[in-house]
């Protein structure tokens, strides 16, 4: 694990290790609910995905936000060159950090984390209470994504907030997490993004735009 992490950091020095919550299990609860079991680990453990045959990998646990516009489009962003997945299109969001000792990692805590990620990556700030739990995704590797839906905002406002965020970051010498944003309104728009995309983007957008 350490050797794989050192190689990853050598290739991308902007990577940094830190505490994250990983998915340890997923079980149904009732007719429409699920219970996600999580464990504390560090980001470097994800480097094991680069090691063929590694058996100590833990699936990621992340949150993301569907931020719609008043005219029915949804904001997506492209990961910058300084991130772990440069050029990848995704919804605003990121890996979940463990809560302070003694505090629960529940839907409310995940909502707060999602609101923070939205603000950090797009400049759009809103109270976590304004986010609605929307769906749960699960990738083939077991990664769990908790998707939240934000209230619709004017497209012009989203563009202005993102432009200001990039400008402020440049002035401070900070690399942005997202270097580009786009507003999409159909499956065709998802395809037209080009490049790489997170595996959940197409099915989530299909569900959101379905008549």
Cα radius of gyration in angstroms: 17 Å
Order of helices and strands: HEEEEEEHEEHEHEH
Our estimate of the beta-strand percent is: 25-35%
Share of helical residues: 25-40%
Terminal CA distance reads 45 Å
Taken from the alpha-carbon principal axes, the silhouette is: globular
Q: How does this structure look, described?
A:
The protein is built from five helices and ten strands. The mean pLDDT is 92. The longest helix has 18 residues, at 155-172. A four-stranded mixed beta sheet has the order 6-3-8-7, covered by helices on one side. The radius of gyration is 17 Å and the shape is globular. The protein is 28% helix and 29% strand. The protein is an alpha+beta fold.
Secondary structure blueprint with pairings:
Elements: H1 2-11, E1 19-29, E2 33-42, E3 61-66, E4 74-79, E5 88-90, E6 93-95, H2 107-122, E7 132-138, E8 144-149, H3 155-172, E9 178-184, H4 187-192, E10 196-197, H5 201-209
Parallel strand pairs: 3-8, 5-10
Antiparallel strand pairs: 1-2, 3-6, 4-5, 4-9, 7-8
Provide a compact summary of the structure:
The protein is α+β, with helices and mostly antiparallel strands and 211 residues long. The protein has 5 helices and 10 strands. Strand 4 and strand 5 form a beta hairpin.
